[in-house]
Amino acid sequence: xxxxxxxIKQVPDTKIIKMNPKTNTMDRASAPAILNPYDAHAVxxxxxxxxxxxxxxxxxxxxPPPAVKAIKKCIELGADEGYMISDRAFAGAxxxxxxxxxxxALEKIAKQRPIDLVICGKMTIDGDTGQVGPGIARRLHIPPxxxxxxxxEINKEKGYAIVHRKLEDGYEVVxxxxxxxxxxxxxxxxxxxxxxxxxxxxxRYQPTIWTADDLEDVDRKQLGLKGSPTIVSKVWAPPKPxxxxxxxxxxxxxxxxxxxxxxxxxxLFQ
Amino acid sequence: xxxxxxxxxWVYLEVKDGNIAPVSLELLGAGRQLADKRKTELAGVLIGSxxxxxxxxxxxxxxxxxxxxxxxxxxxxxxEPYMRALLDCCEKHKPEVLLYGATPTGKDLxxxxxxxxxxxxxxxxxxxxxxxxxxxxxxxxxxxGGNIMATILCKKYRxxxxxxxxxxxxxxxxxxxxxxxxxxxxxxxxEEDMRTKVLEIVREAKKARIDEADIIxxxxxxxGSKEGxxxxxxxxxxxxxxxxxxxxxxxxxxxxxxxxxxxxxxTVTPKIYFxxxxxxxxxxxxxxxxxxxxxxxxxxxxxxxxxxxxxxxVGDAFEIVPLLIERFKEEIPKVKAAADVKEEIRHA
Lengths: 270, 348
Ligand SMILES: Cc1cc2nc3c(=O)[nH]c(=O)nc-3n(C[C@H](O)[C@H](O)[C@H](O)COP(=O)(O)OP(=O)(O)OC[C@H]3O[C@@H](n4cnc5c(N)ncnc54)[C@H](O)[C@@H]3O)c2cc1C
Ligand SMILES: Cc1cc2nc3c(=O)[nH]c(=O)nc-3n(C[C@H](O)[C@H](O)[C@H](O)COP(=O)(O)OP(=O)(O)OC[C@H]3O[C@@H](n4cnc5c(N)ncnc54)[C@H](O)[C@@H]3O)c2cc1C
Known about the structure:
The structure holds two protein chains of two kinds.
Chain A: E1 2-7, E2 10-12, E3 18-20, E4 25-27, E5 33-35, H1 37-53, E6 55-62, H2 68-77, E7 81-85, H3 95-112, E8 117-121, H4 132-140, E9 144-155, E10 160-167, E11 170-177, E12 180-184, H5 196-204, E13 208-210, E14 230-236, E15 245-246, H6 251-263
Parallel strand pairs in A: 1-6, 1-8, 6-7, 7-13, 8-12, 9-12
Antiparallel strand pairs in A: 2-5, 3-4, 9-10, 10-11
Helix pairs in contact in A: 2-5, 3-4
Chain B: E1 9-13, E2 15-16, E3 19-20, H1 22-38, E4 42-48, H2 55-60, E5 65-70, H3 79-93, E6 97-101, H4 104-116, E7 121-125, E8 127-130, E9 137-143, E10 148-154, E11 160-164, E12 181-185, E13 196-203, E14 215-219, H5 226-239, E15 242-245, H6 247-251, E16 272-276, H7 282-285, E17 293-298, E18 311-314, H8 317-347
Parallel strand pairs in B: 1-4, 1-6, 4-5, 5-12, 6-11, 7-11, 14-15, 14-16, 16-17, 17-18
Antiparallel strand pairs in B: 2-3, 8-9, 9-10
Helix pairs in contact in B: 3-4, 5-8
Bound molecules: flavin-adenine dinucleotide (2 copies).
One flavin-adenine dinucleotide sits between chains B (145, 220-222, 246-249, 260-265, 277-279, 281, 283-284, 287, 297-300, 303, 316-318) and A (14-15, 125).
Pfam families (chain B): ETF, ETF_alpha
Binding site for FAD (chain B): 246-247, 260-264, 277-284, 298
InterPro entries (chain B): DHS-like_NAD/FAD-binding_dom, ETF_a/b_N, ETF_a/FixB, ETF_alpha_N, ETF_asu_C, Rossmann-like_a/b/a_fold
C-alpha cells in the first residue's frame, strides 16, 4: 500500500488579478484564491496511482487559514487526508524556508505513516519559481524527478519507480529508487470530475492543522522571513514601451509601405 | 561566513547535443559585464562526459577559467552526480555569483544546490546587475503573471545564485583569439551509489523551433476561428517564417502549445515579428519584445500591441493579410532573382 503525499498551495488567480495603475501594486482582494492549477494535476496523479496500486493520498499545504479551501478541493479530487501548517512564523518564506517548513511537516506525517512518494506541481502561478519541489527532495534525501509527464510503474516491493521525464525535444525514461519526489507537468493527466460523495466528504472535512510548535526539531531561524536568504527589495511596473508608428493611407497604400519595410531585409529572402 | 573568501562570477555551462547550450553562452556575455564591473574573473563550470574540448568555446565567449568535471558517470544529466560535482566545485573555489540558464536542467540543478549550500536562488531572472563596491547582485524578475517586476537580493549568503531566462541576455560576439585556463577537477562517484538511472532517451520529431526562426508570423484571437487562423499559416509560408500564437489561441485549440509566444510560452527574438489580431497583453509582449522589427496589425486603434511595435496598421486582418500574401508572392521571387544575379556576377 502506497502512501503518497501531494504538496499543494493556494494561490491568487493571476488571470483575474488587477493592478492599481496609480500605485503599481497588486489588488490582491480582486483575485479569488484557487488551488494552484499545477497542483491539481499532482493530486489527480496521486489519486490515480492510489486507484492502481492501493494506498492513501495525503495533501499538505503551508498557508494562512483560508488555505483550508484548497485542501477541501483536493478532497473533492479524491485525496484521503489533509494537513496544513499555518503560523505567523512561516510568513514571508522564500523557497528555501518553504521547503524547510514543508519538510518538517512531511517528517511528522511520515512518523504516522511512512511516505513512499511525494508529488509536487511543476510550479505555482504566483511565485512561479519551481524551486520548492527539488528543495524538499534534497532535504528528505530522496531523489527529485522533475518534469514527470508519465508514471510507467511503481513497485513498492522492489522499491523503484519508472517515469517519463520531459526533455526539450522528447523525454527520458528514468528509474529511481523509492521513496522519491516527482514534480509533474500539466500534460500528465486530465483532471476528472469530482464524484458527489467526494464533494460531500470535502464539505465536512477538517484537515489537521499544525503550528510551528507542533513540528519537531524545528530550527526557528530557518523559518519564514528570518530563514529566507532572498529579499524582495523593490517592486516596480515594467517600463511602458514607447509605441510604434502607425502607417497611414488606404489599405493598399498601407500594405505597400509594409512590403517595403519588410523587403529591405533582403538577406532573409535570398 | 566571510564574504571576502568568495570571488568570481560563475556560469554553469549546460551541455546540449554535444555543445554548450545557447543560454549558457548568453550568460557568459552577461557574466562578463558583471565580472568586469567587479574587476574579477569569469569562470564556467563544465560537467559531462567527453566535454573538455568545449572549454575553448567558453573562452571564445568570454570566460577566463573553466572548471571541468569529465567522467562517463555524467553522460546523461541526473541531479545527484551533477549536484555533487558542482557542490564540490563551490566548496573548493567559492564563487561570489553563480548563474544558471532557467532551463529544465538548470532549474533542477540550481534548486538542489541552493538547498544544500544553503543560499538564496532567484528564479527566472530577466535583468541582472551588480553593485560595484559591495558585490551585491541585483536580480530582477517578472512576478504575478508579468504584471510587475521584482528586484531580489541575497544579502547574507554566498554565492548569490540566479536562474536566467533564455534569450534575454546577449552573448558576446565570439572571439576565437581569446583563451583561458582549464582546471580539471575530479570527484569520486560510483555508479552503484546513484539512485536514478536513465533507461532510455526518446527524441520526438523535431518540432518547428520558433525560438530559432528569423521571421515569425504570430496570430491571436482576432483571427476569429481555426479556419481564420489559416491565414497566419499562409503568410508564414510565403515569407518562409514560423507560426507563433498567443495563449488564448493555444487554449482555443487552434494550434499546439509549442507555438505559444510569451511568458508561459517561448521567448523569441526574430528579425521580423508580425503580431496579427493580438491585443498585446504584457504576458505576450515579454516573449517577443526583443524582436528586431515588430509589425502589428489590429483593427482596434487602442490595442496595447501598438505600444509595443515598431510599425502598426490599424485595420481588418481579413482584408490586409490576403493582400500581403498576394503581394509577397509577387515580390519575394524578385528579391531572390536579384540575389542570384549578384551571385553570378561575383562568380563570373
Ligand atoms: C514577487 C516575488 C518574487 C519571488 N521570487 C522568489 C525567488 O526568485 N526565489 C525564491 O526563493 N523565492 C521567491 N519568492 C518567494 C516564493 O514565492 C515563496 O517562497 C513561495 O512560498 C514558494 O515558491 P513558489 O510559489 O514559487 O513555489 P514553486 O516552487 O513554484 O512551487 C512548486 C510546487 O511546490 C509545492 N509548494 C509550493 N509552495 C507550497 C506551499 N506553501 N505549501 C505546499 N506546497 C507548496 C507545490 O506542489 C507547487 O506546485 C518570491 C515572492 C514574491 C512575492
Ligand atoms: C500568468 C499568465 C500567463 C500568460 N502567459 C501568456 C503567454 O505566454 N502568451 C500569451 O500570448 N498570453 C499569455 N497570457 C494571456 C494574456 O494575458 C492574454 O489573455 C492573451 O495574450 C490574449 O490573447 P490575444 O491577444 O490573442 O486575444 P485578445 O486579447 O482577445 O485580443 C484579440 C485582438 O484581436 C483584435 N481583432 C479582432 N478582430 C480582428 C480583425 N478582424 N483584424 C484585426 N484584429 C482583430 C482585437 O482588437 C484584439 O486586440 C497569460 C496570462 C496570465 C495570467
